[in-house]
Specification:
Oligomer: single chain
Structural class: alpha/beta
Order of helices and strands: HHEEHHEHEEHHEEHEEHH
Distance between the termini: 68 Å
CATH architecture of the largest domain: Roll
Shape: elongated
Strand content: 15-25%
Number of strands: 9
CATH class of the largest domain: Alpha Beta
Largest sheet: 4 strands, mixed
Radius of gyration: 32 Å
Helix content: 25-40%
CATH topology of the largest domain: CBS-domain
């Protein structure tokens, strides 16, 4: 299974409108113990984000511009979400991979991303903690996903290759036809989130390791033997025997 953002995101998201008073936003952040809130349009589209940092900037601007209590300027005059919000809001698609989300958070130095539809409608929020969720599963959950991946990608059933997971270490037993297949199984299992180590004890009937590493560029689709293009017969020509060549000369 290729984990996507929609698999781990939080779908129930607290939002405010563009005309929500700043004081109400501050109370909301404190009451819900969150650090930011999306600002959305009535249609569900994302307009921006108001964070604790935005609120603090407004307070700091007010004190800096009004050391003697004069008329506030700039963001210090903000009375609603639309005056303070940061726009555009950082967002990511629901079908993006967890790796892509992690790289975006790291490069932009943020702790969360809004998840939006292609039309820009808010679908949820994904945080750094959400991205770690697949790696925090217990051994039984990891084993079930390993078995599902082997069945989906390689058509290998649990009766053919056994999987045991203990503290993130996956031990594989059973038998397959080729050495290369056993190696592919290892790569598939290693890619499952939560697997920290793979012990491959799978037996195989045919060791095709040398064939895989050989310089032969192609092999015959129905044989494990090397396929040499230069030695094949030309298509559409039938080799002539000695007698048939003699008859051709007589007819000519």
């Amino acid at each position: 299974m290729q984990w996507q953002v929609e698999d781990v995101m939080t779908r129930e998201v607290i939002t405010v409108g563009v005309d929500t008073p700043v004081g109400q936003i501050a109370s909301l952040l404190d009451r819900e113990d969150i650090s930011a809130v999306p600002v959305t349009a009535p249609t569900g589209g994302v307009l921006g984000v108001v964070s604790q940092a935005d609120l603090l900037v407004g307070v700091a601007d007010g004190e800096r511009d009004n050391p003697r209590g004069g008329r506030p300027k700039g963001r210090a005059t903000a009375v609603r979400a639309g005056d303070l919000m940061t726009t555009p809001a950082l967002s990511i698609d629901a079908d993006a991979s967890l790796t892509q989300a992690a790289r975006t958070m790291q490069s932009r130095n943020v702790h969360r991303l809004l998840v939006t539809s292609p039309e820009g409608r808010l679908l949820g929020v994904v945080s750094r903690g959400d991205l770690l969720r697949p790696y925090a599963r217990n051994d039984a959950e990891i084993r079930r996903e390993v078995e599902a991946e082997l069945r989906r990608r390689l058509w290998i059933r649990p009766e053919q290759v056994g999987v045991r997971v203990h503290e993130g270490t996956a031990t594989l037993t059973g038998a397959v036809g080729r050495h290369s297949t056993a190696d592919i199984v290892t790569r598939v299992v290693t890619a499952v989130p939560g697997v920290t180590k793979v012990i491959n004890r799978i037996r195989y009937d045919f060791d095709d390791a040398e064939l895989v590493r050989s310089t032969v560029s192609r092999t015959h689709p129905f044989s494990a033997e090397p396929f040499h293009p230069g030695k094949q017969r030309r298509r559409g020509r039938i080799p002539l025997t000695r007698g048939s060549r003699h008859r051709q000369r007589q007819e000519a």
